[in-house]
Amino acid sequence: MLRRSFLLVLFVLLLAACGSGTGGGDSASPTTTMPVTQGPERIVSLSPTATEMLFAIGAGKQVVAVDDQSNYPANAPHTKLSGYEPNVEAIAGYDPDLVVASGDPGGLVDGLEKLNIDVLIQEAPQNLDGAYDEIEELGDLTGHQQQAHAVVTRMRGQIAQLVDQASAATGLSVFHELGPDYYSATSKTFIGSIYEELGAKNIADGAGKKAPDYPQLSAEYIVKSNPDLIVLSDTKCCGQTLEKVAARPGWKKIDAVADGDVVEADDDIASRWGPRIVEFVRIVSEAMAGAS
Fold first, then answer.
1. How far is CA 205 from the centre of its chain?
2. What confidence tens digit (pLDDT) does each residue in 31-47 have?
3. Could you tell me the pTM of the whole model?
4. How far is CA 98 from each of CA 19, 20, 236, rounded to the nearest angstrom?
5. Are 271 and 12 in contact (CB under 8 A)?
């Protein structure tokens, strides 16, 4: 059961990152698959991150349906629509003039294009600047430019303070756990860029040049790397806690475990790149300061 739950988490991350050019360099520009000719009045969001962004910038009243993974905010119009296996007919049933998604699974774009429905694809960015660009883009498209700019300005300011707060812990090593079978994320990914921004050393980067952006590390490698901080982003999907990590063979030797420097993060906040990423940066920054 844990394996199945984790693979779903990993699939979400890989689907969101698909085609986003996570091989390094500047953040990928948000991609409008079809030109939006006028301000949308009926938006369907198939991306949990986009849902959070739309409501944060004041465009929530224009959203008529969100996918089954969009669980925030609570007042979003939740449906059984799937962002992984989208049903074009079901989506069209909401009579949208804009569909926002994080990828193009199952010929989504082509199917909606045939129905003359505009589509905006916003893939997982490589870093915070890419996330800011996507928020601003949604603001431009929905007529909420000022609100979007205000959200980005606030995020920039808050994160800058948190980065400064963590500055004393620069060089601290961290293991970010995506699942109990030790998948992690390198600095080439969005979540990995957060640790880089905070000045932490990501042990996943040492998995080898040929390793994927989301490598599966071994228990032996993690124990040998002896991270100063462990961040669990599999607390909801897989029930991981400090106690369960400490019970793993050999893990009590790890400094982070011995010192209690294990962060139990919210899976959703740790896997999305919307405004709530500030909360994730905050808990990591505070944990780094405490572990230094």
1. 18
2. 444 444 457 999 999 99
3. 0.85
4. 21, 21, 31
5. yes
